[in-house]
Amino acid sequence: MSYSMFKNLTNKVLFAAVFATLVGCSATPSTQNDTSISDPKDPLEAINRPLWTFNWEYADKYVLKPASEVYVDNVNEDLRGGLYNMALNLNEPSTVINNLLQGKFTDAAKSTGRFVLNSTIGMLGFFDPASDFGWGRKQEEFGEVLGSYGVGDGPYLMLPGMGPSSVREEVGDFVDRYYWPLAIIDFWPNLVRIGIIALEGRHQLKDQEQLLENSTDTYEFVKNAYFQNMRFRVYDGNPPIEMTEEDEDFEAFMEELDDIE
């Protein structure tokens, strides 16, 4: 498959995501008692749930998890760490631009320093000397840029073989692919890069696997965890506190008491 074919494929994915947005925005309950859509963030739940079952019960169980275990057990830990560093190092230029788009100039400077130092002294990112200078890795995606400007997540998406996502994240990933150097990497090298990230990511989730197994509804557990993580990333780990209607009523009641006093 050529890179042009790969870009055509991503265009189709984007079109599908935008179509899902339009469907999600235009679909409204016919009556107030219609409970077919229980979560406004998940208007495609009827499609997403079967896809989650496929991902968790088949794709992960029989492909991703065994592949990750074989990779971890048979590849030297230092080599694995180096390959993982190289794969993530290619994301640094997009992180620089996305930080600049949010006015995070200090973070953009650190990411620039990370990329230059690790790509030279660090041998194309195999080593991570930038961390010794306090320039820790902090990936910033275009989806987070959109979120910082108030763009909502959009409908929740469960992608076959890939996992949870949202329309905003898919649009962000589409834009990130056109940043240098990802835009000039051919299909197969990029597939290897994605594979390394996926295998390491699955290994890192091993300790959290029991939490998922113990949950009452694994689909809801993963969906809630996804949106919490996205919110955490958009606000750089310091999201504003959301007040429920009960909290607001209690606060109003306390203010009335203060006025009486």
Spell out the key features of this protein.
two-stranded antiparallel ribbon, globular, mainly alpha, 261 residues, 3% strand
Ordered list of secondary-structure elements with their pairings:
Elements: H1 3-26, H2 45-74, H3 77-89, H4 92-101, H5 105-120, H6 142-148, E1 156-159, E2 163-166, H7 167-176, H8 187-204, H9 209-214, H10 218-234, H11 245-260
Antiparallel strand pairs: 1-2
Family: Belongs to the MlaA family.
Pfam family, one: MlaA
Keywords: Signal
Would you kindly provide a brief summary of this structure?
The protein has 261 residues and is mainly alpha-helical. The chain has one domain (3-22, 39-260). Helix content is 64%, strand content 3%.
Question: How would you describe this protein?
Answer:
The protein is mainly alpha-helical. The protein has one domain (3-22, 39-260). The protein contains eleven helices and two strands. It has helices at residues 3-26, 45-74, 77-89, 92-101, 105-120, 142-148, 167-176, 187-204, 209-214, 218-234, 245-260; strands spanning 156-159, 163-166. A two-stranded antiparallel sheet has the order 1-2. α4 (92-101) runs antiparallel to α5. The chain is globular. The termini are far apart.
